[in-house]
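Run log // design_07
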């Protein structure tokens, strides 16, 4: 059996809520879990950050730059994540 690679497909709401650093850390923290479990972990991370009014999210930074009033926390919205594993032989 050769190498395997993890691929994450995420909806647009994951990025405004979670930074790429958060996303990149998940596979190593959750090593050995199924791709379904990884997708759930990533979706839950984005959800929890979107509801955290103390988290200065990428969404909040963009809102601040645009001088909008919503400049704290993330944005409560639907979140979709699909994870797959590609194995080489």
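design_07 sequence
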């Amino acid at each position: 059996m050769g190498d395997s690679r993890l691929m994450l497909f995420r909806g647009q709401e994951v990025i405004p809520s979670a930074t790429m650093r958060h996303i990149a850390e998940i596979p190593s923290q959750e090593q050995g879990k199924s791709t379904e479990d990884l997708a759930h972990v990533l979706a839950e991370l984005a959800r929890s950050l979107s509801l955290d009014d103390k988290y200065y999210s990428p969404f909040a930074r963009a809102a601040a730059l645009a001088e909008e009033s919503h400049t704290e926390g993330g944005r409560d919205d639907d979140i979709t994540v699909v994870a797959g594993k590609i194995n080489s032989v």
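The mean pLDDT is 69.
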